[in-house]
Design a protein that fits this description.
heterodimer, A: 327 residues, alpha/beta, Rossmann fold, 8 helices, 12 strands, 30% helix, 20% strand, B: 547 residues, mainly alpha, two-stranded antiparallel ribbon, elongated
């Protein structure tokens, strides 16, 4: 007998065969199963997350309030009061998102970002009205750490209890904006599941549209190649405003940037107007501020007309119930 | 109370300084604050602390600048005790040394038993580091800071900060992403909690990327892996700081005393010897190679070894061969002119060589920059990257601004705060003069000048509205201005668009326009270095109008 020969019993041989057969069948099964699951990769479907945040119209209250005075916080208080008080807008338990303009690495005096005192006052009012969470966020253009800090907004808002959230690349979700030209687009997820949205832009000069006001502020919820939106800026503005439909808009005209917007930088570009324009009709607000501070007629801002056609409001601000008050 | 064993103390010291180093490196980042007010932003920690205590950096700075940049005087705190005690710094403090120490403690196929003992005997090639030190110091005298390629802290910050940490960031974020996008709410919660903890400890504000990062990482891994063959190969053979400390420890009064009666040639003192300095009986102790790790004292079963002040025993100093010293000198003398024999340095500078704000003129910059990567690590926009060929061979791993990846933030001067050598001279946001918090500066720091590629620019080439570059331009008045133009679009319709132009007298070269340009791959507006304020020659305009 050969020393290396192995004695293989029938039983062992059978087990060996079964093992091989099992492995073969497994491989074949897995292969067939996988071959049925091969398809060309498609990007994930955009979320249908559109929801309005408006409140019902109430004839008892004005639709627009123009308040002028020295203290920005007091102006914010009076503006909300004139429109019917914060409880008209915020219900107990609401999750509220406050969207200031925190786009640029500038200080409040340079008027490139919303006045921090106004933001803080609105946050405080929302909390007093019983809001469950008040989130303050923006997708800045410059480095968000610098923008949030140097604008003074992060400090002012968190001091009164807001949840200040810096945008993070992982926080964007692909959303179907259901617009006429804007469809799938990455949106900061904080904007998607809130009950109320309060828009607090600052009025600034802008070379393409003449001025950047309330509706332009919605660029600040987008990620992705948002610089391409300028190619069809009017259509984009309306699509975004239609997507958001905010509860309340407060245009900060305490300091306005009249030249070299939207970044500014030079204090000589800033005018002190000490005014807040607040209201529930974002179109009328933009039309009013454009006329009041830039002397721009609605006809020179095509997006206003498009917004009217989309049912977002009216640009005939003269016909809107308005409360004008100087403190 | 019994005094703890010196080796225990040493391990404690090594861990402490390594963690301190890691902490400072992780904090070499502006993390933003929700509570700070609007004032000027500074880094809360002295992030380049280790460089200030690095005598090699101090000496190279003194040789190249004939002065000593802020804080570098602290290096005497290391240098002078070394003269008395020897290379305690290598064994007790140096974080790179500690990393090598840690990885050397693993045995390998080629490094165990008798081989391990043999590999820990003094070798002639350990003197290589002295010749490298001589060559690089000579190069420094001749105006090239290439010593930073080999300086241990430069190496460590560059490798870990620009490659290992970004890779860690990437993998942690990938893992967290899986958890946070899980189908199950409980897993998502775990993911968010982990994200919060890791965010506070380890993760940067956002995922950083660095050009050439892979090579920096591979070099580092290679140096670490060498320890599996030869204990602390880097420290024994290459480290120029170790060499410098070895040289100055020549007159050290602390020494190893070997008691020959106690030695029975068991070789155990060689088992864990870090420096390869022959603590074994029968041969002379190589004082400049010893890291004072104390392992030999610990290991000797007969208690025949101890460290003592004013030892009455012969030791061997650094025995350099005259011929090799001369070779080192000659190499140092030759390398700088050779690197500069290409036109890049003097006459044909690469046009995209944008240096950080505050950087000195190229000649001074190259002599002071130690290629450590602190500026790149701290840049909030991930705009600074280690140069590969942009600045010539000599400028390998010096910082270069890549606006497509990140522009220079208007009021930010963090790179100038982090720079340990003054290659980027410390400036304030006011001196930078881009953000007019305090009224317009009349002489802003300029990094270069923007130019348009009209063939790719939407309003110029495609009759399409854009103006994003003008929107982002941070100067006031803006360097980018618009003029309306009547164009006929592809369908034959008349159309008015605003076309951008650039005023070079206002442009500061920050690169925001290039960064923001919606033409994704190759932008229609780009910055080149011409007009950079640090250079007197690299200019366009005869009289650059004051801001």
């Amino acid at each position: 007998m050969e020393p290396d020969a192995i004695h293989l019993s029938r039983r062992e041989a059978l087990i060996k065969l079964l093992r091989v057969a099992g492995a073969g069948a497994g491989a074949a099964g897995l292969g067939v199963w996988l071959s049925q699951h091969s398809w060309r990769p498609e990007p994930t479907l955009a979320l249908a997350a559109k929801r309005g945040h408006t409140i019902p119209a109430d004839l008892a209250f004005p639709e627009m309030a123009v308040i002028t005075g020295d203290d920005p916080a007091e102006l914010a208080r009076q503006a909300v009061e004139a429109l019917g008080g914060i409880r008209r807008f915020i219900a107990r338990g609401d999750v509220v998102l406050v969207k200031p303009n925190i786009g640029w690495d500038r200080t409040p005096e340079q008027a490139a970002n919303t006045n921090p005192d106004v933001v803080a006052e609105i946050v405080r009012q929302c909390s007093n009205a019983g809001a469950k969470r008040v989130i303050v966020t923006d997708v800045s253009c410059n480095d968000p750490r610098r923008c949030f800090q140097r604008s003074g907004i992060a400090e002012a808002a968190q001091r009164v209890g807001a949840e200040v959230r810096l945008p993070d690349p992982a926080m964007f979700k692909e959303v179907d904006l259901q617009g006429e030209i804007l469809r799938a687009w990455p949106v900061l997820d904080l904007f998607l599941n809130v009950d109320k949205i309060i828009n607090i832009p600052i009025a600034k000069h802008h070379s393409l549209t003449g001025t950047t006001l309330g509706m332009k502020n919605w660029y600040g919820m987008l990620g992705g190649p948002r610089h391409q939106l300028h190619q069809k800026i009017h259509e984009s503005l309306v699509d975004l405003a239609d997507f958001v439909r905010p509860t309340l808009t407060i245009i900060d005209c305490y300091r306005i940037l009249i030249r070299n917007g939207p970044t500014g930088g030079n204090l000589q570009d800033v005018l002190l107007k000490k005014t807040l324009v607040a209201g529930t009709d974002p179109v009328a607000l933009d039309a009013y501020v454009a006329k009041a501070y830039w002397n721009l007629e609605a006809s020179s801002l095509p997006y206003l007309k498009m917004a009217v056609n989309r049912g977002l409001g009216t640009y005939e601000f003269e016909k809107v119930r308005t409360r004008i008050k100087t403190l | 109370m019994r005094f703890p064993k010196p080796t225990k103390l040493r391990t404690f010291s090594q861990i402490f300084f390594f963690l301190l180093f890691l902490f400072l490196l992780l904090r070499t980042e502006f993390r933003g604050s929700l509570t700070a007010s609007t004032s000027e932003i500074r880094l809360p920690y002295p992030v380049s602390l280790f460089f200030r205590f690095d005598p090699l950096v101090a000496i190279s700075n003194a040789l190249s600048s004939h002065g000593l940049y802020r804080g570098l005087l602290w290096s005497l705190v290391v240098l002078i005790p070394t003269m008395f005690l020897g290379r305690f710094f290598c064994g007790w403090i140096c974080p790179l040394g500690s990393a090598h120490h840690f990885f050397s403690s693993f045995k390998s196929e080629r490094k165990r038993g008798k081989q391990l003992i043999d590999s820990n005997r003094y070798k002639r090639w350990q003197t290589t580091k002295y010749y490298l030190l001589i060559a690089s110091l000579v190069a420094t005298v001749l105006g090239s800071g290439i010593i930073g390629w080999l300086d241990p802290f430069s190496l460590l910050v560059r490798s870990v900060g620009l490659s290992i940490l970004p890779a860690t960031d990437y993998s942690l974020r990938a893992a967290l992403g899986v958890l946070e996008h899980s189908r199950y709410a409980s897993v998502q919660t775990v993911g968010s909690i982990l994200h919060f903890i890791l965010g506070a400890l380890l993760l940067g504000f956002k995922q950083p990327y660095f050009r050439s990062g892979i090579w920096l990482g591979l070099i580092f891994v290679f140096l670490i892996v060498l320890n599996f063959r030869i204990t602390r190969f880097w420290c024994r053979a290459i480290c120029p700081l170790g060499a410098l400390l070895g040289l100055v420890s020549r007159w050290s009064v602390l020494g190893l005393v070997k008691n020959p009666e106690h030695c029975n040639d068991c070789n155990r003192c060689l088992l864990r010897c870090q420096g390869g300095d022959d603590p074994i009986g029968g041969v002379s102790w190589h004082q400049p190679e010893c890291h004072l790790c104390m392992n030999c004292v610990d290991e000797c079963p007969e208690h025949g070894l101890r460290f003592q002040f004013f030892p009455a025993q012969k030791t061997v100093g650094t025995s350099l061969q005259r011929r090799k010293v001369l070779t080192g000198l000659a190499a140092g003398v030759a390398v700088v002119p050779l690197m500069r024999s290409t036109p890049g340095f003097a006459t044909e500078r690469y046009e995209r060589l944008l240096r950080p704000p505050g950087a000195l003129d190229e000649e001074y910059f190259l002599s002071r920059c130690i290629r450590c990567g602190e500026c790149m690590k701290v840049c909030p926009n991930n705009a600074l990257h280690p140069a590969f060929s942009e600045a010539g061979i000599e400028g390998l791993w010096t910082p270069v601004l890549v606006p497509r990846i990140g522009y220079c933030e208007t009021s930010c001067v963090l790179c100038s705060q982090a720079c340990p050598t003054g290659a980027i001279w410390e400036i304030t946001a006011k001196e930078k003069g881009w953000s007019a918090d305090v009224g317009p500066a009349d002489k802003p720091v300029r990094l270069g000048t923007a130019f348009y590629d009209r063939g790719r620019c939407l309003p110029w080439a495609m009759a399409t509205d854009c103006i994003v570059c003008e929107e982002w331009c941070p100067t006031s008045p803006k360097a980018i201005y618009l003029r309306p133009a009547e164009l006929i679009d592809a369908a034959g319709n008349a159309k008015e668009v605003k076309q951008p132009y650039l005023d070079p007298s206002r442009c500061v070269g920050c690169g925001a326009c290039e960064y923001a340009c919606p033409v994704q791959d190759r932008p229609a507006v780009y910055v080149t270095s011409v007009g950079e304020s640090r250079s007197r020659t690299n200019q366009i305009l005869l009289n650059r109008r004051k801001g």
